[in-house]
């Protein structure tokens, strides 16, 4: 920049500053004033965004805040936010907290550009313990909490996202769960079911962020409200609460909390009651309850035997398989897939022969979406195990032999993979992949020329992902140590050749 250009720029900034300071004090503006504001703010915005210094010129943030608070023009407000974002980034967090009018307007504004400015400002506090202490000890913190109930879901989400980070800071979590703030959240929860669910989600998310956060939330009773609303009058709320509580199954301490709070007993008792078939919400509540049990056994598989012994989950689900509508049966299929996708759960299914036989027999009579769900379930059950685990080999072979007696043979699975319905084809591929992950599956391959030819064939099915899934079968076979002793030399050569040409597929 030349000396003349620098002087001109400095003069423009000085003139713009004078315009802004003058109009910030004015009681009202006419159209010419608004044009002058737009021009002056634009000059400062450009100057602040450039990499050069502002030639010693200073624009007080109080001036821009005053203009922002007075203006109803979206264009002026957007420029004010852009300028303030740059100016405030150079101030300490303590100084920023002194702009209470700006923060108050930012939390309550219906303009996203103002909301974003304020939440960007307070986000800085998360990275500094001293700044975060200043925030949670200020009146501004209560405004952040109140934003959870904001009508604009974007603002509510920004507030929730910020507050969820507090679990990493014990002193901030203590401030959030103070009696006054708990009272504020209780009051907000009473305003609407939407706000209540936002607060439930916030508290659960924080409690699951660490063991210490979970312990503190539980000790303070912050989670007790969740356990008291299961199966109350509002079934829609119950569905959401059950889904939130399902996330607790992800950790042992979450499971212990659910046990101690009586939630698990409540959810088991719910399985003893048939849903109102004419009430979609009642059926969805039952579906959510069933899925809870599947995820509990999946996540806490080390306690699977103790849980099944105490509650007989599969026995409680048996009547639903025989009487329920398709949506509840589908929920059971998903739950069984989760239940039996680990060795402990598969062992329980194997021991509960009546329930397992019912699930397997359903492959013969079901079509469409139900058949698709069943194939996915079978693939999860057959995909369990390790090569050296004789018990798992025995259980998975038993399951597949049962499937064969009901018409789901390797031949039928091969035919399904060549179909035009992609989801059904992929599910059939997944079942075959489960079969081939076992030594007995490799033996079936060795004794079936049709199966062997299918595996090495390049005449694939009609679906787009057929090539990828077909190569997955080949890799599963080649990765299995039993293929060395179980498969003949010719088929091994063909498999190796197919694998070598994988990049051509």
CATH superfamily of the largest domain: Leucine-rich Repeat Variant
The Rg value, from CA coordinates, equals 32 Å
Tell me the major beta sheet.
none
Number of helical regions: 33
Q: Tell me how many strands there are.
A: 0
Instruction: Look up the CATH topology of the largest domain.
Output: Leucine-rich Repeat Variant
Termini, distance in Å?
Answer: 59 Å
CATH architecture label name of the largest domain? Alpha Horseshoe
Query: Mean pLDDT, rounded to whole units?
Result: 87
Oligomer: single chain
Instruction: Assess the beta-strand content as a share of residues.
Output: under 5%
Strand pairing plus helix content: what structural class?
mainly alpha
CATH class of the largest domain: Mainly Alpha
Describe the structure.
- One of its GO terms (cellular component) is cytosol.
- InterPro entries: ARM-like, ARM-type_fold, PSMD5.
- It comes from Batrachochytrium dendrobatidis (strain JEL423).
- This is 26S proteasome non-ATPase regulatory subunit 5.
- The protein has 505 residues and is mostly helical.
- It has 3 domains: 127-225; 229-408, Leucine-rich Repeat Variant (Alpha Horseshoe), CATH 1.25.10; 409-504.
- It contains 33 helices and no strands.
- It has helices at 3-25, 31-49, 61-70, 74-88, 93-96, 100-108, 112-123, 129-136, 140-146, 153-164, 170-176, 179-189, 193-207, 211-219, 224-227, 235-246, 252-260, 263-270, 280-299, 304-311, 313-323, 326-339, 343-351, 353-365, 368-382, 390-405, 410-417, 422-436, 439-446, 449-456, 466-479, 483-486, 489-500.
- 37% of the residues are buried.
- The mean pLDDT is 87.
């Amino acid at each position: 920049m030349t000396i003349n250009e620098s002087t001109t720029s400095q003069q423009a900034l000085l003139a713009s500053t004078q315009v802004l300071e003058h109009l910030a004090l004015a009681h009202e503006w006419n159209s010419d004033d608004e044009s002058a504001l737009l021009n002056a703010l634009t000059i400062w915005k450009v100057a602040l965004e450039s990499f050069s210094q502002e030639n010693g010129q200073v624009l007080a943030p109080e001036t821009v805040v005053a203009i922002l608070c007075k203006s109803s023009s979206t264009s002026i407000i957007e420029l004010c936010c852009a300028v303030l974002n740059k100016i405030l980034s150079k101030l300490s967090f303590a100084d920023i907290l002194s702009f209470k009018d700006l923060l108050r307007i930012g939390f309550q504004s219906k303009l996203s550009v103002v909301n974003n400015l304020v939440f960007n400002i307070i986000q800085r506090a998360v990275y500094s313990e001293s700044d975060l202490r200043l925030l949670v000890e200020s009146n501004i913190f209560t405004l952040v909490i109140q934003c959870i109930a904001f009508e604009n879901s974007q603002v509510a989400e920004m507030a929730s996202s910020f507050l969820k980070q507090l679990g990493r800071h014990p002193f901030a979590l203590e401030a959030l769960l103070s009696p006054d703030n708990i009272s504020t959240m209780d009051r907000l929860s009473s305003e609407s079911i939407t706000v209540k669910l936002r607060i439930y989600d916030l508290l659960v998310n924080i409690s699951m962020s660490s063991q210490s956060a979970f312990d503190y939330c539980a000790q303070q009773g912050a989670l007790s409200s969740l356990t008291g609303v299961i199966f109350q009058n509002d079934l829609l709320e119950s569905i959401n609460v059950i889904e939130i509580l399902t996330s607790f199954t992800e950790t042992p301490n979450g499971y212990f909390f659910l046990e101690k709070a009586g939630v698990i007993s409540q959810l088991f008792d719910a399985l003893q009651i048939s849903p109102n078939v004419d009430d979609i919400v009642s059926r969805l509540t039952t579906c959510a309850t069933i899925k809870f049990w599947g995820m509990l056994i999946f996540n806490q598989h080390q306690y699977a035997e103790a849980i099944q012994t105490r509650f007989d989950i599969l026995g409680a689900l048996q009547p639903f398989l025989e009487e329920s509508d398709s949506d509840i049966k589908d929920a059971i299929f998903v739950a069984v897939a989760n239940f039996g996708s680990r060795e402990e759960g598969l062992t329980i299914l194997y021991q509960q022969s009546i329930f397992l036989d019912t699930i397997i027999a359903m492959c013969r009579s079901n079509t469409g979406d139900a058949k698709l769900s069943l194939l996915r379930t079978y693939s999860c059950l057959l995909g369990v195990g390790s090569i050296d685990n004789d018990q798992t080999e025995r259980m998975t072979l038993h399951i597949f032999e049962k499937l064969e007696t009901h018409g789901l043979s390797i031949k039928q699975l091969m035919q399904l993979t060549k179909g035009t319905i992609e989801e059904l084809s992929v599910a059939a591929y997944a079942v075959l992949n489960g079969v081939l992950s076992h030594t007995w599956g490799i033996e079936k391959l060795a004794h079936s020329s049709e199966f062997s030819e299918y595996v090495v064939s390049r005449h694939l099915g009609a679906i787009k992902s057929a090539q990828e899934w077909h190569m997955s079968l080949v890799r599963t076979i080649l990765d299995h140590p039993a293929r060395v002793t179980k498969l003949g030399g010719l088929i091994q050569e063909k498999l190796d050749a197919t694998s070598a040409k994988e990049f051509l597929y």
